[in-house]
């Protein structure tokens, strides 16, 4: 893509330095930037510009369309969070809102001809899954304290702990795999179906599948956010 070519022509040196510093073998030093990473950076720039525009246009008396949309998204995320998390749910809304919007934009940008959705590369869903995993464990430790949070892994009675602890550890690690595969597989499959029908015909049928792709983009962003909310709610619950 054009943005990948721009990054490779201007920032190949810094990218190679970072990759070598973390022990990654650079096969093509002239082209260290990949399409998925370049597109992800483009999404970040777009979102930053939208947020800057939104902050400057805030109005109590005369809110615009962008402000109405932002308020609807905020109310939606806050409602889902408060429904699942009873104790201080509002403190987690910024993370869940950021997660939802970031994934949604990365999914939708693939609709633009010549641009590939970053979530079609396994590295992006995996990084998002790691972020969610780290966040809900951190939230549990902050809310419960180390001993009480670790007690979640031991089960309801002490003599079940030798069995429950390995099961719980495997269950938590499986969440990483589940979040990654669900987002990656659905976005990759949706893109392949759309491209297949675009290759067959350029009229009505591709439009139907592009509409389906938009629906899947919203759905997968929502599911990823909802699962993250559920994981946090289980980690911070005092009733366990």
Report how far the terminal alpha carbons are from each other. 50 Å
Helical run tally: 9
Determine Rg (CA atoms, Å): 21 Å
Tell me the strand percentage band.
under 5%
H/E series: HHHHHHHHH
Structural class, please?
A: mainly alpha
Please summarize the sheet with the most strands. none
Mean pLDDT: 85
What general form does the structure show?
Answer: globular
Helix content: over 70%
What's the total number of strands?
Answer: 0
Task: Give start-end ranges of low-pLDDT stretches.
Answer: none
Count of structural domains: 2
What characteristics describe this protein?
mainly alpha, 2 domains, 9 helices, 74% helix, 240 residues
Structural features, described:
The structure is a single chain. The protein is mainly alpha-helical and 240 residues long. Helices cover 74% and strands 0% of the residues. It has 9 helices and no strands. The chain has helices at residues 2-10, 12-21, 35-56, 65-84, 93-108, 123-144, 146-151, 161-200, 204-236.
